[in-house]
Amino acid sequence: MRRAALAGAALLLLAAGGAGGQGADAPPASPIRADFTLTKIGGAKCWAPCAVHVDAVGNLDGVAGDGETIDPGWERVLHTHDFRWDFGDPHAHGTWPSGHPIGVARGAIAGHVYEKPGTYTVELCAGRPGVPYGCATQTVAVERIEDFPRDVFCIAASAKPVPGRDGCPANAQAAVQPDFDAALIGLCGMKGGKNACLFRGGDRFEASLALQAFNGDARPALVGSYGEGRAIVRTAGEIGAFFVLGSGLTVFGFDLECGAPCHLVTRPVGAALENVTVYDVRGSGAIGGAFDTVAGGETGNASSNCAVVKLTAHKTAPAKGTQFTFPYCDRALFVGNDLDNAGHLHGPNPEFTVRAYFRRYAVSYNHLRGAGQCRQALELRVDLTRARPHDFGVVGWNRVGQRVGRNMIGVCNSQDGCNHSSPNQETKDARHVVVEGNHLYVDGGYDRAGCGAGFEAPVLVNGADVTVRNNTIDLQGIGEQVFPGTGRALVVTTRRIEVPPATLDDRVHALGNSVYYDGAAPGWPVCHNGGGAGSTGHVCEGNLVYAPHAAPLSATSGGGFERAGGNVLATARSPFAKPLPRGPADDGATRPEDFAIRPERGAEAARDAGFEPDGARSFALPVDAAGACRPEGARADAGAFEAGATPDCGRR
Fold it and tell me: What does pTM read for this prediction?
């Protein structure tokens, strides 16, 4: 047992032996110096709902005091350690679309939205096997709408609101206006704008022009709902979008109904936006894009801080467009969203579920499914021609369902993206990304139409310093519809990678992932390196595959692997504790917990057969997919779950 110091009790300051817990029974001090930067997306004064972005990355220079969590002797703390956040919000309840609880988070970058005003304490605890977690706290103040410095309006479709009652702030002006556009133009744009415009929850409003009628300072600062439920806004005719964003704008609490093709939220071309938040917005109907740039969305747009949280969009009718695009956002949260492109899988350019261009980002706790044609359900693009060298991202604890396409998650360069012929990708590749704890599955059966080459790999990487760990991957339904020849893999495939300086190891690490494949296409490796002889430093360790019909299997192909041990490739007997549900028959019926392993050891068993540290400090597997301590024995179990381990290594 090598986890005694990891137990939650080791994090507490025990009083035994005198003040400060310095007696004989006190836990040892942690060598980990936890630190983080907290940014209010809405600006220095942030009114509820207030999104906060927390970041333990710093400058990646090992120097304390700039928000970087440091563990002396560990050069890649953000890839190797476990990060846990508690946002101290007593009003947070329920679960994200991924099934994870709201109010706590994991990963070196995370975020939260405070729905109520008040002062809250945010706590970070960071750790690794064998030492106590190091912790740090900061406070965040969320303002009351009663202290809003400009005009506040309560608007109803009928029955005039009463300020101070039913959720309408006491300092508000009341109005009745069922025309959404007239309310925005005639009320929210008064007196130079930057006002708060609140629509009564449950009331139904009609829209035709929407917020694109506003320009410059005439744009309100808050547009949302009050009272019980969301305000309902419907358009019968085709419009560009319900909302066109501007700097300092927070949009929240709406049900948006597209009676004809329309976008839910867009942003102007070429605009440099700051402090933009979209929270708790639902859309349905002929959605062209849930969140998109109106045109030319891949270049020219720069944003400092942005948050899209609890955006729900279920496309029920065909309409061309990307579900979500947010180009070049510095500090970004894409958290707890639920996007379904099921109504438009084929046809002219159905595009992506998510295409994101971020710099310091958390793409976490989302449920994304139904990417079109040959696209990834989640395509994350990073452009080093614009990005700083210490950018970092977390893609974690999402549910990603794919019906067509070669990959489920793509981590790629921005201008040529995840495409297969990319003349510029030698110098524009993604860096410093952790893909962790995601559940990737075939959504309702794999559909090869529109993507004749077939499936290639769950995760595609065009980049360096990318860690793929503790993911559960259900490939039921892929069958033999796989990409022919080299390039395919059961976990991750890496393409051409040249990131200056040329001497830098590329370091794509696949650790502790679990895979079930029920097809009969033989010869799949767990990890494939397509970067050529110059692509080195890769690790493919401690992964677990069950493929009863696809023997023979192999751990790696393509060369360039520093380590490739501890992988369990089972074909004769399932290593999982119970039979896996039939995923494609029921819209991805499997869940991560279905990949728990059998407790016994032996041939084709995962217990104590996986990752072994051997003094490595550039890669590690500190916990499993559920946050339980690794290793339970002399070495970690193969796959995403550690049998019999302490349920929680942190304070929760």
Answer: 0.89
